[in-house]
Task: structure prediction
Amino acid sequence: MATCETSCEFGVQSLSDVRIVLLGNRAAGKTSLANLIIGNAEPHLKRTAQCVKMQGDFAGRQITVVDTPGWWKNYLVKETPEFKKQEIVLSMAHCPPGPHAVLLVIRVDTMYKEKHRRSTQEHLELLSESVWNHTIVVFTYRDQLQEQTLEKQIGSEGESLLLWLVERCGHRYHILNTERATGTQLAGLFEKIDTMVVGNSGCHFEMGRKWLHKVEGMMTRRHMRANQRRKMVQEQWGTLPVHQGHKQFHISKMRMILLGCRRAGKSSAGNTIFSVSTFISKRTTHCVRRQGDVAGTHVAIVDTPGWWKSLPVSDTSQLDKEEILLSMSLCPPGPHVLLLTLRVDMSFTAEEKKSVEEHMELLGERVWAHTIVLFTHGDCLGDVTVEEFIESEGKTLQWLTEKCGNRYHVLNNENWNDGSQVTNLLVKIEKMVAQNRGHHYEIDPRTLKEVRQKRKAADKKAKTRAKEQRRMWKISAMKGQ
Result:
């Protein structure tokens, strides 16, 4: 819904008080643009997890800029966490009565494909379709891309996908070098904002009040339920003594297994626990075991191959399923804990719930009593608590945490200096093991035996095939002579 400003703003050459909201995917250059616009002497450069409101002045104008959390370029709106979508909607409330301009920031020195265009459209239309009437596309680039080639690129990149955005915004766009922006470039941007506002009859953009109130209510209920969950978990685990019998219970040699879908952050979590890059953060095809001392405890961690996030176990290769099962034998007599890794910067969908359930149950139903949900990429939460994330995601994620006895933990993979996040995890593991009467998890030996036999037979067949191929190559080579 568009609402007109006071009559004094309509028809003037320029606005004296300009309100701007920045939208775009992660790494598009939103925060750099915000700092340029308001002339921040001490720029805010870190990742934006919540809306950040900044104020400054440019050429005698009072400027308000609201920087918003970015979405993942490759993912649609359904895969963006609910709390982040709420932040995008509520960005409108940070510059009342509404922004004069929504600047859609797109980097043009990276590929832009159809899925990126669709993601942009879906996220922008969280604010209603009328937002396009108040949007200017700001194409950002760095020095490696020559400015004179940009006009041609905008019309040709990805079969005119960038041109589609420009046309959707009424052919309004601006090109900006975020590393070496000049005052002339910024002045040109404000001239385009003035022109757009005049074209909108002096109106700013304003969210429909019903939709805005609904999202505000969702956030309020999220806070309330999160507080209830935090209190419940504290009562359940915070007062649970770490002891067995009359002795204080401490695990001097702790065994962990990392499980989860591909790119969930398993290897990064292992490195964060050890505070050193011991696991290689790339596709894990076989189980990898590492060990070291952490806060006075000897820790052994087994990293496992990940499965596809939204696919059922039937679509996982037999080799990967065997590796997951054989991970149990790499930390004999069995792991104290299975850390099920999930990202907090992505939504937990019904498809992912089904995938997690099926893959975990490869190990047997009893595995849940020894599992802690380990949320990775904790830096993306910002000031949002993990309980708020769980509550905002709804029944699917709530089901998973409850399946694991309300055991969960958050790791900031970017901050290895925070030793407390690791020591707190160790304490939670010890409390869980104490509740399990000191028992580790042990898979049915018959299952492991069967998997080993299958693996042995497969390896034998592979060696036989390789030997036969070498023999055939040798015969072919002799005939060629």
